[in-house]
Design brief:
By secondary structure, the chain is of the alpha+beta class. It is built from ten helices and five strands.
């Protein structure tokens, strides 16, 4: 994908509306569906601009008194967020894994002194160094959720079964991303990311089928569907090098 149309918009529109940015050290990226293979006819442009100047307020008057620009006259619409680098610290503090995925799949339009690249490299190292503990935590949470689902099925609690079934699928697909040492996107893009970046299409299709069966399950069928779905996750963990007995010890209960 050519980045030229987005770079031209940055230079000719954003910097024109905010001329004080011209002399600033900045990084700019295109994020969202327009930046990767999810792009379709409904994709708008989401551009994030990060400046080095910690006194961002000095730039605001030339940006319509706010660090966010809407351009709904453009086809497609463009939404530009202008912040200093501290904003990234806040985003990574809230949702580090999701935020890493978003910016890893962005298109770089400008990166003075490679500041953003260096920042993301640091966050990637933090993500990688904590993977072992995070995988263990996610695995035990997945098993706990599945057992809570069993209890809800015994009580014939339909709404709770639906909620816990969805949680089981979400947690399982997130765990598959982590097993392949990659962050994961927002919930609505989990399966898409799994098939495009994590697993082969055939394997991803089996996971999707098992997940869909669980999502549509009733209290009578959810226990078997959940065991099958979680079993696929455990098989993937074993394939990735985890010992099946160790996984049982992590949980402390063999189901």
């Amino acid at each position: 994908m050519s980045a030229e149309p987005y770079k031209q918009y940055l230079d000719q529109v954003i910097l024109h509306r905010c001329p004080l940015l011209i002399a600033s050290k900045l990084s700019a990226v295109l994020i969202g569906s327009a930046a990767d293979q999810r792009r379709d006819a409904y994709s708008d442009w989401d551009i994030h601009v990060f400046v080095r100047d910690t006194e961002l307020s000095k730039l605001i008057p030339s940006c319509d008194s706010r660090p966010f620009l809407d351009d709904k006259t453009h086809d497609p619409p463009v939404f530009t967020l202008i912040r200093n680098f501290d904003h990234l610290d806040v985003r990574f503090g809230w949702e580090p894994i999701l935020t890493l995925w978003i910016y890893q799949h962005s298109v770089v339009l400008r990166d003075d002194d490679r500041a953003l690249s260096a920042y993301l490299s640091d966050r990637q190292r933090e993500f990688t160094s904590g993977l072992g503990l995070e995988i263990r935590r996610r695995y035990t949470t997945l098993r706990s959720t599945r057992h809570s689902l069993d209890a809800a099925c015994r009580r014939n609690a339909h709404s709770t079964v639906q909620l816990l079934s969805a949680e089981t699928v979400i947690q399982g697909i997130q765990l598959l991303h982590l097993l392949h040492e990659t962050p994961y996107p927002r919930t609505q893009w989990l399966m898409w990311s799994l098939s495009h970046y994590v697993l082969g299409k055939d394997t991803a299709a089996r996971v999707e089928e098992a997940g869909n069966n669980l999502l549509c399950a009733t209290p009578a069928t959810a226990p078997d569907y959940s065991r099958h779905f979680v079993g696929l996750i455990v098989d993937s963990m074993v394939t990735s090098g985890f010992d099946r007995q160790s996984l049982d010890c992590w949980w402390g209960l063999i189901d």
